[in-house]
Amino acid sequence: xxxxxxxxxxxxxxxxxxxxxxxxxxxxxxxxxxxxxxxxxxxxxxxxxxxxxxxxxxxxxxxxxxxxxxxxxxxxxxxxxxxxxxxxxxxxxxxxxxxxxxxxxxxxxxxxxxxxxxxxxxxxxxxxxxxxxxxxxxxxxxxxxxxxxxxxxxxxxxxxxxxxxxxxxxxxxxxxxxxxxxxxxxxxxxxxxxxxxxxxxxxxxxxxxxxxxxxxxxxxxxxxxxxxxxxxxxxxxxxxxxx
Length: 243
Ligand code: BJW
Known about the structure:
two-stranded antiparallel sheet; alpha/beta; six-stranded parallel sheet
């Protein structure tokens, strides 16, 4: 695919690059997005209604099973050319931060090192009350209709992810904001740009004078405010950008 010369030049000259990714970057690995076509458990339940503390309160086993299903899906998935291109870009730029909203861990598996997982990682489990990590060999089974329990306090266990209405880790959001505000080029890849605070990072970058680039086959609220839009799947656009 054709990449605008100005964009290629800006990336070559960039001292600092910040990338924000969303579910679309993993779509070509077979991991469903949140707001696109539905497969598997997505057919019957709205993912946006399951990713809430209210859903966990009302039906903890359903939410636990949904994440167990996704964990399995992700375990079997492989990073795609978009993940690999971003890992390669990190090696070419003096300062590079990859901020992801994804909880699938595929960026690290592709070799990216400087990764900020804004919404957590579904590979880890925490106690819903204490918020401390619990490893699988410590899980206390609680029957078929409830999630496993914390070995220390007996509360339900839950995935270590950020649901709607929950606050993000201060450390992670500060790191992401500093990277966005300090970069020369900001790439927004495969995100619908509607969930905050992640969706605000592009405007922070633009305010500081960064070139803002969107990679997404569909229009989003960020499209009109971007300096360049690559209307293509990330697995096509990112390798073309990096080569
Ligand atoms: C491709 C492609 C291909 C397809 N290549 N692209 C300010 C204003 C208004 C509201 C708020 C605000 N601040 C906070 C809020 C409330 C709320 C919020 O933002 N709501 C909006 C929906 C309005 N935010 C929060 O609650 C956050 N907490 C917070 O801010 O705390 C303080 C606070 C609380 C309450 C009120 C005010 C302040 C927490 C947000 C946590 C989001 N959690 C989830 C679940 C994570 C765990 C899990 O994975 O299960 O995060 S929800 C879900 O959305 C998930 C995603 O990370 C996130 C973003 O979705 P994403 O990645 O963009 O995916 P999609 O599916 O939406 O888009 C995919 C895109 O890919 C599409 O555009 C496709 O076109 C594209 N695509 N194939 C490239 N091959």
